[in-house]
C-alpha cells in the first residue's frame, strides 16, 4: 500500500475570536459547518454523557445508587428521574446554539446566494 502523507487540516477554523472570520461563500460555508458540528456535539454530549454516567454508576457503584435520599427515594432513582430535565437542557442548548451561531450564518449565506 503506498504511503499517504497526513492531510493538512486546512478545513479547520482558528479558534481565536480576535482573528477575522473567513470571508466569501466558501468561508461562510465552512463557518456554518463548524457551528453546526459544535451544536450537535454540545447537545449530544450533554444528554449521552449524563446517561452514560448513570449507567456507569449503576454498574460500578450499586451501594451509592441504593442509598436513600428521602423516604423511599434512592439516589439511583433520583438520578434516573433527572434524566428528563437533563435531556430538556440538551434541547435548550441545541436551540440556543442554533439561534446564536448557526441561524445567523445560514441567513447570511441565503442573502449572499440570493444576490447572484
User: How widely separated are the two ends?
Assistant: 45 Å
- Gyration radius over CA: 22 Å
Total number of helices? 4
Q: What share of the residues does DSSP label as strand, in percent?
A: under 5%
- Classify the helix fraction into a percent range: over 70%
Task: Tell me what you see in this structure.
The chain has one domain (24-115). 71% of the residues lie in helices and 4% in strands. The chain has helices at residues 24-60, 62-66, 75-81, 83-115, and strands at 68-70, 73-74. A two-stranded antiparallel ribbon has the order 1-2. It is elongated, with a radius of gyration of 22 Å.
Give the helices and strands, then pairings.
Blueprint: H1 24-60, H2 62-66, E1 68-70, E2 73-74, H3 75-81, H4 83-115
Antiparallel strand pairs: 1-2
Any descriptors?
single chain; mainly alpha; 4 helices
In a nutshell, what does this entry contain?
With 116 residues, the chain is mainly alpha-helical.
Amino acid at each position: 500500500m503506498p504511503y499517504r502523507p497526513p492531510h493538512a487540516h486546512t478545513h479547520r477554523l482558528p479558534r481565536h475570536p480576535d482573528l477575522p472570520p473567513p470571508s466569501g461563500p466558501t468561508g461562510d460555508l465552512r463557518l456554518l459547518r463548524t457551528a453546526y458540528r459544535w451544536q450537535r456535539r454540545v447537545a449530544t454530549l450533554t444528554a449521552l454523557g449524563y446517561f452514560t454516567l448513570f449507567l456507569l454508576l449503576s454498574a460500578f457503584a450499586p451501594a451509592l445508587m441504593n442509598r436513600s435520599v428521602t423516604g423511599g427515594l434512592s439516589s439511583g432513582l433520583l438520578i434516573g428521574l433527572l434524566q428528563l430535565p437533563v435531556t430538556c437542557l440538551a434541547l435548550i442548548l441545541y436551540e440556543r446554539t442554533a439561534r446564536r451561531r448557526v441561524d445567523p450564518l445560514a441567513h447570511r449565506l441565503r442573502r449572499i446566494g440570493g444576490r447572484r
